[in-house]
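Risk mitigation, structural track. In case the binding assays with alpha-L-sorbopyranose fail to produce interpretable data, a predicted complex structure has been prepared as a fallback.
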Amino acid sequence: MAEQINIGMIGYKFMGKMHSHAYRDLSFFFPDSPKPCLKAVSGRNESAVKKAAEEMGWHSYETDWRHLIQRDDIDVIDIVTPNHTHPEIAIEAAEAGKHIISEKPLALDVKDANRMLEAVEKNNVVHMVCHNYRFAPAVQYAKQLIEKGYLGKIHHIRAHYLQDFIIDPSFPLIWRLKKEVAGSGALGDIGIHSIDLARFLVGEMEEVSSMMKTFVEERPVPSEEGGLRGTSNQNEYGQVTVDDAIAFLAKFKNGAMGIFEATRFAGGNRNKNKFEINGETGSIRWDMERMNELDVYFTDSPEGLQGFRTIHCTEEQHPYAGAYWPPGHSIGYEHTFIHLVHQFFQGISANYSPHPNFKDGLMNQRVMESIENSAINRGWEKI
Ligand code: SOE
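Fallback model:
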């Protein structure tokens, strides 16, 4: 019988639903993985958390996350709450000996991310941070191609993550727009995914130069937080304290150069997470909105057949894809979370913390801090 891992999840909204779905589907597609048991979900509002527990299949609920952490029947704490709560929860969970999976960004700043890493290492618990895009089969395959040398020495990465859900100035001042809760705006919410993918595929950055912009400085205060939008009260306005958009240049330790952009003001782009990498013998490009495809170009293609071609990463040879349907039958956004949880459980079984773990979370935070400092100081910043 496969090992059972008992989960306690703190928070239950968008990401809570995504993680719950991943646990529920894991054994269906990866029957050899340890079996998740959805023991309990926690939230402050009793009627709302009870309803979420029933809808998402959790066996019980708690209204105090500290009770959840102290429960003997919980092995893993899954953190899907707003960013400012991550450090306190993670440190307490580590001290209680629980393995931890946390939504990104790990913390609001480098200092707290450091404290979180120290706590998981000191208490010898397994840890991961949810950079789910690493786990798209096409992205994993891109990593394999790079590691096998298909691209040769890497010269460039250009990556952007574009959304448009806050362009309307009457969009409410949700927690994602407040520095004390979110840490940063487009940078920490979506730019961080590009940073993580660049570190995964190209390597560590050593220096950055950036600009940041807040286009709408005041927004209506929400009368109620909920999902991505919440409900707004158009009579009362509050200050937006994070960036709406960022752009930065990066120098990598291996000599590659990077150009990055993250914005939630790119009209028409709902979730355009895209990168292109160019090396001396080939190029690859990927776009989340066509997530099962990887465009590749190799310099050794015969004359007349030069140029990009598209691989559909739905074959058995492509990471994770063989667990699903016959070739050409696509998978989606939610499956990246199933793969992440699968990896996390492998780590728990063998007592190691798979990447991206809290060390990656800390590195991503350090890159973000340098990006912010560069925008303020108007110059290059070392990481
Ligand atoms: C909202 O902008 C959001 O849900 C992010 O928080 C996620 O990390 C990103 O993957 C999709 O967009």
